[in-house]
Every structure is written in C-alpha cells, then in structure tokens.
Amino acid sequence: MGWSHEAYPTPSVLTRYRGAHMTVAFELFTVGLAPVDEVWGRVSDPWRLTEWTDAEQVERVNGDPMRVGSEIVVVTDGQRLLWRVDTVEPRLWEASADVPAGRLHLGVRVARDPLGTRLILAALLEPSRSAWRARLLTVPALRRRLERWCEAALRPDGAAQ
Fold it and tell me: Burial, 51: exposed, middle or buried (Cβ in 10 Å; 0-12, 13-18, 19+)?
C-alpha cells in the first residue's frame, strides 16, 4: 500500500485517483491498555482473526506464521474471502482481498504509545463500481467495522467482551 504508518493518522477519508480509477483510503487508530506484545500476538496470528474481526471462521491458512504470499481464507457474513498477505514487517502486516465493493487493501500496525498500545488500521478500497457510492455508503460502514476491530483487538486477554 505504501502508506507511512509512522505519523499519527488523520480521521479523514481521502479520495484519490490512481490512473483512471478512483480509490478511497482512510486510517484510524485506537489506544488501549493491553500490552504491545499481547496485541501483536492477537492481530498477527491468522488463526485468531475471529477474536477481533468480523470473520466467523478461518477456513485455511497457507503460510503460517504469516509471511509475504500467505493466503488466508475466512468466512464473513456467510461469504468466503481470500486474503493475500502483501507485507510483513515488525508489528506490521498488509493484505488485500476482493470484496463485493471492489478490491480492499488493509494494513495493521501495532505501536507503543505513551498511553499504552496503539493499533492503527489503514484501508484502501478500489471500488468495482462508483467511487462516490463507495465513499458515501461503503466506506462509512467499513470504518464502523474497523472501529469495532480496533476495540476488540486492544481488549486485554481475559477481559469481558
């Protein structure tokens, strides 16, 4: 994806053109008290996606531990999604999948924060249809979904849901 995750992300949604195609991108972050290593252990283990995302089931992981080229098949809302891992660095991974709204790129970074642990989620959607429809309808729903993911990922092990 090529975004800088070092800077504090802004809550705005960015619409940009990539050639003749429009993309919609945003980043969000949440800070929590769970230790950095605990959060990274949760979000970097593909078999634990059901603990913090909307995935109902992880069907298959090719390439475990996660590495560039790993493929993760999850079931979400009764639909199978194939995620391909594009980047793996210390406390950062990025993957992409074809979703009903288009091609979704997702970045996940865990960092130390003066208040605890910061989880940053970045998303870039290459809409299959109207980018304006994606910006007005798809992205707000996706943003709410990622906000829930942040909250669940930062919950300390053993904390009530």
Answer: middle
Q: What's the CA gap between 94 and 106, in Å, rounded? A: 6
Cα distance between residue 81 and residue 18, in whole Å: 24
Judge whether residue 1 has pLDDT over 60.
no
Please say whether the beta carbons of 78 and 92 come within 8 A: no
pLDDT in tens, 64-88: 899 999 999 999 999 999 999 999 9
Distance separating alpha carbons of residues 43 and 62, to the nearest angstrom: 17
CA distance 74 to 53: 10
Asked if 80 contacts 73 with a C-beta cutoff of 8 angstroms, the reply is: yes
**What's the CA gap between 25 and 105, in Å, rounded?**
9
pTM for this one?
0.83
At residue 59, the 3 state secondary structure works out as: strand
Tell me the pLDDT tens digit for each residue of 16-36: 545 546 788 889 999 999 999
Q: Which residue has the tokens 């009530």?
A: 160
Report the relative pairing of strands 71-76 and 79-89 from DSSP bridges: antiparallel
* Structure tokens, 121: 């989620």
